[in-house]
Amino acid sequence: MLFVDRDQAGRLLGARLTQVPVDDPVVLALPRGGVPVGYRVARALHAPLDIVVVRKLGVPRQPELAMGAIGEDGVRVMDDEVVSATGVRRAEVRAVEDRERAELERHVASYRATGPRIPLPGRTAVVVDDGMATGATARAACLVARAQGATRVMMAAPVASRQSVALLGRVADEVIALEEPEPFYAVGQWYLDFQQTSDEQVLRLLGAFRSPGGRDEPG
User: CATH assignment of 6-209?
Assistant: First the structure.
């Protein structure tokens, strides 16, 4: 099925997750596109909403192709098959990683302005994105959640490739995708409206959820 937009996809994903037993959840959305989806999931689960910041490491001459990903707390995930198939040199990997690490730190500083990180020890981390193509960034996000002490890690997305679901099964206790279409070329092809989510939208959604009124609808 085609999703209208991330808001609708989040509502549908949230409805699905209410049918899964989840103990003391914290929803961790991947900025930027995963935040509108995660916002709806958190409301459905009556759970707190936080973010998990990761950056894709794109192949230098094919930036949309992920050769790995990095996350908070020094987490680094590499896809050795992609690196080998594309012939990326070690120096090129280092240059991409240095650039993306700087961007990651910048985003962490910006997004954390809405509030401190929610402690995960003893809780279930429900990691949410708007879709998974290769699963590289989602895998990094799950590893970050585990490193931060989550007792259980679930990965959830409205749409995902079967390859990514299999990959995530190695690092997450459970993987939930509403749709697993094949062939799968890009997440955006499964949305009618896939406009880029801005930093301002991310901050507004996080701020609305953490407002004194408690999980208010953003204006």
Answer: 3.40.50.2020
Q: Which residues of 23-61 are buried (b: 16+ CB within 10 A; e: fewer)?
A: eebbbbbbbbbbbbbbbbbbbbbebbbbbbbbbbbbbee
Tell me how far apart the alpha carbons of residues 178 and 159 are, in angstroms, rounded to a whole number. 6
Give the gyration radius of the chain's Cα atoms: 16
Is residue 6 within 8 Å of residue 36, measured between CB atoms? Answer: yes
For 7-64, the pLDDT digits (tens) are 999 999 999 999 999 999 999 999 999 999 999 999 999 999 999 998 889 999 988 7
What lies within 8 Å, CB to CB, of 177 at 6+ separation is 132, 156, 157, 158, 159, 160, 165
CA distance to 96, 110, 181, 210, per residue, from 55 (Å): 10, 15, 25, 24
Task: Tell me the domain boundaries of the chain.
Answer: 6-209
User: What's the predicted TM-score (pTM) here?
Assistant: 0.86
Q: Give the up-direction half-sphere exposure of residue 217: CA atoms within 13 A in the CB hemisphere.
A: 2
Q: Do 154 and 124 meet the contact criterion of CB atoms below 8 Å apart? A: yes
Residue 90: per-residue pLDDT: 94
The tokens describing 117, both together, are 């990180």
Give the pair of three-digit tokens for residue 193: 């409206």
